[in-house]
Design a protein that fits this description.
Blueprint: E1 6-10, H1 16-25, E2 31-35, H2 47-63, E3 68-71, H3 74-79, E4 91-92, H4 95-105, E5 110-115, H5 117-122, H6 124-132, E6 137-142, H7 146-151, H8 160-176, E7 180-183, H9 192-199, E8 204-207, H10 208-222, E9 235-239, H11 246-254, E10 262-264
Parallel strand pairs: 1-2, 1-3, 2-9, 3-4, 5-6, 5-7, 7-8, 9-10
Helix pairs in contact: 1-10, 4-6, 4-10, 8-9
The protein binds D-glutamic acid (DGL).
The site of D-glutamic acid has 18 residues, from helix 3.
Length: 270
Amino acid sequence: MSKKPIGVFDSGLGGLTAVKELLNALPYEDIVYFGDTGRVPYGNRSKSTIIKYAQQDANFLLSRNVKFIIAACGTVSSVAGDLGGKIEVPFTGVVRPTAKAATKLTKNGKIGVIGTSATIGSNSYKREIEALDKSISVYQQDCPLFVPLVENGFISEDDPIVVMVVERYLNKFKEIGVDTIILGCTHYPILKKVISKVMGSAVALVDSGRETALYTAEILKEKGLLSESSKPGKSSFYVSDTPDGFSYLAGMFLDRDMDDDVTQIDIEQY
Ligand code: DGL
């Protein structure tokens, strides 16, 4: 048993979709979230920069005495792997748990993967799925306009602009007939309704935040690290840019009103 918090980081606020799922799966755990809002996006940066940033993000969480770290960012998980094995607490990215879930869900053996350009360029999901089951075909598409759409609040399934962008990226998946799509970026669950509208409700959408939260619950249980508390856990939020506007966006990602405190830190110190 451990009273220490779970640490979650992302390049920005998208990782809050994983926090939302953690709050459901592990309601008695304390959570420390860091969003690198001063340096987002990571998805179009070089591998060495992403690794440097991810290590600093993890160092900050370690300074908050966390027992487990989640890189709730498709880009970091794809490009920075296990952060060179330098993290001294158990650690997970989003790729492995999500790939595993998609492999179990597909019936026709055709899985689509969407993510940032860095995630898709790394072939991380494709490699992971093929290692699990060689008979599955993986089709990939980067969707660089999705993150700016979400960050600017363009998320409605009734907005023709949003529908048009989603169709442009996903039409090839319709032609191929994938029956499962991995939302390989933590921003994308916010677009679930419109993706479902475009693809049809029969296509399963695999949410990397959700699968990673469920995986974290399993690992903490296995390692005897779950909290003993029977009171709801506390969440603390840190960002690297001014917290102005945080509540609005964070509320959208967490799907609840946000009145928690947010603290700005200087991530370059870690
Ligand atoms: N959080 C990133 C991801 O999940 C998307 C935003 C970015 O490009 O940094 O890939």
